[in-house]
Amino acid sequence: MADEVILLDFWPSPFGMRARVALAEKGIEYEYKEENLSDKSPLLLKMNPVKKQIPVLIHNGKPVCESLIIVRYIDEVWKHKSPLLPSDAYQRAHAMFWADYVDKKIYSLARQVWLSSGEEHEAGKNELMGCFKLLEGELGDKTYFGDDTFGIVDVALIPFYSWFYMFEQCGNMSIEAECPKLVAWGKRCMEKESVSKSLPDQHKVYDLLMDLKKKFLAK
Amino acid sequence: MSDEVVLLSIWPSMFGMRVQIALEEKGIEYEYKEEDLANKSTLLLKMNPIHKKVPVLIHNGKPVCESSIAVQYIDEAWKDKFPLLPSDPYHRAQARFWADYIDKKMYNASRKIWETKGEDQEVGKKEFIECLKVLEKALGDNPYFGGEEFGFVDIELVPFFSWFYAYETCGNFSIEAECPKLIAWAKRCMERKSVSKSLPAAQKVYDFVLQLKKTMGLE
């Protein structure tokens, strides 16, 4: 029986992008369904009744929610191709630590840089750059965070690369000037088809985020 | 070479309790080191330089941080004993989903109960009970979240049971009245030696919370 794989998603979502990258890495055919987050589909509400959020992976009718949990699930089910986690238990824990770090820190700071102003904005911007520098330190001279192989930390972080133009515009800063190694890593990842096919254009993201910002501030 | 296992924690930490339960379930000998968070040890700062938090599991000198990651690591490193996570990838994803829900939604709501007063506290109480009801529904008629067997989600959630008395007293409400099935589940877990050994007495936790409130100027 062929697998039926559906991804409920929203194109600028970094969390959705993680699922897209993982599916592409594994060469899995799937149906992409764009959600309108101000008018969520009955399918989304049925498949993720607890959080009502995207992304949701639906595999043969069964939902998997939360982006990093989706990535791990994909890695475990389609385990014969492009492993996204190391095989050693300690290295796996190390990878999950950094994926968790990205999860805990980056999005909330990204939101601050995107939506806030004044002191809160400055603080968010500085903390975000601090996080990027820390991640750069963890990357070191490796090709990817997973050492020579593209792995879960790369998958967790690379979607935010599509938000870099917004960070730079809103934050009035150059990420490349502060974190050249991280930007080089981003470009390296973008050379992979699984990534370039899954990430939207940075300017397109910026335009949408500015639209959403206007609506957000109008409330 | 025999394993050297050290756990850095503080006795009231539900996150530390998770790791203790996992170690006890696997029958692993370990050294417990109580930290003073107002005066963090050099070892803690060296082993968790990023977050500087407990718990930290140190296995043969190598640190594993973040309780959920540590519990999964313990399950994988000592995989020949009592499995904590299901073997099926879909059930593993479900287990991880609930662990994430407990960490993100339930924990944040629980903090409002003892850290705030008035309307904020009422909001916290309401959110917390809602979370418990969602979890109660997920439990269904099973003896444990893992089904017939005690497992990962049970380990992630049961430490909070030691804080229930503190929440109830601070918030002036009864958890048993709202979620009797969950209380029955918790008492069932407490019959396990790994759990009863790892959870402190409810009164002791309450005294600790009162002291903490004083220190934080939250009276």
Automatic annotation (TrEMBL), chain A:
Domain GST N-terminal: 3-82
EC number(s) from the headed UniProt entry: 2.5.1.18
Gene3D superfamilies listed in its UniProt record: 1.20.1050.10, Glutaredoxin (3.40.30.10)
The keyword Transferase is assigned to this record: yes
Catalysed conversion reaction: RX + glutathione = an S-substituted glutathione + a halide anion + H(+)
PROSITE patterns, sorted: GST_CTER, GST_NTER
Alphabetical keyword list: Transferase
Keyword Transferase set for record: yes
GO MF entry, a single one: glutathione transferase activity
Pfam families linked: GST_C, GST_N
GO biological process, any: glutathione metabolic process
Cellular component, GO, one term: cytoplasm
All copies of domain GST C-terminal, residue ranges: 88-216
Family: Belongs to the GST superfamily.
Entry protein name: glutathione transferase
TrEMBL record, chain B:
Main location per the UniProt record: cytoplasm
Domain of life: Eukaryota
Protein family (similarity comment): Belongs to the GST superfamily.
GO BP, one annotated term: glutathione metabolic process
Key word Ligase present: no
Residues of the GST C-terminal domain: 88-208
GO cellular component: cytosol
EC number: 2.5.1.18
High-level lineage: Eukaryota, Viridiplantae, Streptophyta, Embryophyta, Tracheophyta
Enzyme category, top tier: transferase
Protein name: Glutathione S-transferase
PANTHER family linked: GLUTATHIONE S-TRANSFERASE, GST, SUPERFAMILY, GST DOMAIN CONTAINING, GLUTATHIONE TRANSFERASE
Keywords: Cytoplasm, Transferase
UniProt-listed InterPro entries: Glutathione-S-Trfase_C-like, Glutathione-S-Trfase_C_sf, Glutathione_S-Trfase, Glutathione_S-Trfase_N, GST_C_Tau, Omega/Tau-like, Thioredoxin-like_sf
Role of this protein: Is involved in the conjugation of reduced glutathione to a wide number of exogenous and endogenous hydrophobic electrophiles.
Subcellular location field: Cytoplasm, Cytosol
Residue ranges of every copy of the GST N-terminal domain listed in the record: 3-82
Catalytic activity: RX + glutathione = an S-substituted glutathione + a halide anion + H(+)
Any GO molecular function: glutathione transferase activity
Keyword Transferase annotated: yes
